[in-house]
Amino acid sequence: MTTKLQEGILVGCGNPLLDISAPVPMEFLQRYGMKEDDAILAEDRHMPIYHELVDGYQAEYLAGGSVQNSFRIAQWILGQPNVAVFFGCVGKDRYADILRQKAREAGVNAHYQISEETPTGTCAVLITGTHRSLCANLAAANRFTIDHLEQPVNKSLIENALYYYISGFFLTVNPPSIMRVAATAHAKQRPFLMNLSAPFISQLFMQPLLDVMPYVDIIFGNEAEAKAFATAQGWAADEDLREIGRRLVALDKLNSARPRIAILTQGCDPVLLIQHDAPVQEFPVTRLAVHEIVDTNGAGDAFVGGFLSQFVQGKSLDVCIRCGNYAAGHIIKNPGCTYSGDPHFVDQ
Q1: What is the CATH number of domain 10-16+65-120+138-332?
Q2: Taking the CB of the first residue and of the last residue of the chain, which one, N or C, has fewer CB atoms within 10 A?
Q3: Active-site hit among 211, 301, 318, 347
Q4: Is position 301 annotated as part of the catalytic site?
Q5: Can you give the pTM of this predicted structure?
Q6: What is the strand order of the sheet 60-64 is part of?
Q7: What is the pLDDT of residues 285-339, one digit of tens each?
């Protein structure tokens, strides 16, 4: 990176979770009523999963949560600390200390709200071959309140940011905080980016998602998430992904001077860039050999992190997307949403 960026120009809210990651047999998933590539919130029947992973499998701890992952990747590529500021809620425990340390090491300026009575959230990352299934127990992450954003130092960080990113997962926690950040971005004419995050968000939290959508300048999603949104909206079930993207772009928007953009990923198929009144653009993904794929966990978060690393530098959308593809490809070769060595993205 050549030009030094202002600190704190990127702000996001999300669910800070300690990932507990381990390879497991299919029988493990079935026992907990889960499918490959699930992304679900833990119910009572899932609660033993975390101890079982730690006690019975080769479990690793990783600092997780979708937005925090994306910010760690963006910081890795930028190579300059404290460009990204992250808000979320943790408990007062060892897991929170690990998360805080991991965030700091990654260069993310984490401003955690602390819940005295609820433990830090965890996410079981269940790896079956090249598939990964997520079961998140939000715990303290669920305790985030808008009061945290009203504290003078935090309010100032939000006011001074130039870019804002929030995951759809945060809709399950505190929609008023999302609306506050979105309204700030709108008032200051600064980009507000969001992610569909998982099919269950559209299935169960469609109203808060529709409430914030008029503020969203760039919406990210994968094929399954986009199709879940389309189904929940009553659009044709067999609709082409490009058409779903066009409809997403056409939803009501407050700032008509900045038409919405949809960026939809399709695994190893090309990324789609869908813009108002423009042909859909495709960006090919470098296919990896089977032996190179270690773990697809966090590939979507990494894509957004790569995108953001260029977007906050004012780079063009095609450069941002190519960096997203680069970051996702790198992360897939590592366990969990982790990276190794120095980044080697060239924006030509």
Answers
A1: 3.40.1190.20
A2: C
A3: 301
A4: yes
A5: 0.91
A6: 39-41, 131-137, 121-128, 17-23, 60-64
A7: 887 766 666 655 678 899 999 999 999 999 999 999 999 999 988 877 666 667 7
